[in-house]
Amino acid sequence: MPTVQLFLLAIGLSMDAFAVAVTLGLGVGKATWRNALVVGLYFGAFQAGMPLVGFFAAQGFAGYIRAFDTYVVFVLLVFLGGKMIHGAIGSGSDTPAVVSLAPRIMLPFALATSIDAMAVGISFAFLEVNVAAAVLLIGAVTLVISMAGVRIGSFFGERFKTKATVAGGLILIFIGVKVLVEGFL
After folding, report:
1. What pLDDT was estimated at residue 132?
2. Going by C-beta distance under 8 Å and a sequence separation of 6 or more, which residues neighbour residue 89?
3. Under a CB-based contact definition with an 8 Å cutoff, are residues 65 and 118 in contact?
4. Do 17 and 149 contact (CB within 8 A), yes or no?
């Protein structure tokens, strides 16, 4: 697979991570480069790792995962989105609750946004792809795009506070519903 196609694939795979990174940026307050790097590393590592899982797992295991991946992503995103909205509205002030970047928050987000990358990894097994180069490129692109997402979200979050956090929660719920609907199509 040519490098340009791999780069475009990496951008496509990173879009869910970007959307969630923007949402996280809305809730982290003033995003530091450290916060952006933490989010980028989680998302980049999972986006790079999941194609490897798919590549090595092959078809038998993929069928098992495909049977319930839509529901897992839906539940995770709707739950986390609802939690963000509840935290913003339930606080009773115009200062939304700060989103944690702790592993208990970041791992479900990273997993939910990278499940589609596992399917891409399965396709790598049947194509002429330098898997090592592909996963490094996917991880690097997702890292950079996710870091940008956190910074963009923080910019708007500082200006619109609670409304931005509610919007971020709604975005997560929308992505979850979209994944569920696409799973039935």
Report:
1. 92
2. 162, 166
3. yes
4. yes
Give me the pLDDT at residue 143, please.
97
**CA–CA gap between residue 157 and residue 135 (Å, rounded):** 32
- Per the structure block, which two tokens stand in for 164? 């931005």
**165 or 37, higher pLDDT:** 37
- Residues whose CB is less than 8 angstroms from the CB of residue 81 and which lie 6 or more positions away in sequence, other chains included: 23, 168, 169, 170, 171, 172, 173, 176
Q: Which residue intervals of 67-130 are DSSP H helices?
A: 69-90, 103-124
- pLDDT above 70: residue 96: no
| pLDDT of residue 5 exceeding 70 | yes
- Please check the confidence at residue 145 and state whether its pLDDT lies above 90: yes
- Cα 87 from Cα 103, distance rounded (Å): 19
pTM more than 0.90: no
CB 40 within 8 Å of CB 107: no
According to the model, what pLDDT value does residue 149 have? 93
Is 155 within 8 Å of 30 (Cβ atoms)? no
Return phi, psi of residue 28, to 5°. -90, 0
Cα–Cα dist 44/28, whole Å: 19
Quote the longest CA-to-CA distance of the chain. 56
Identify whether the C-beta of residue 13 lies closer than 8 Å to the C-beta of residue 116.
Answer: yes
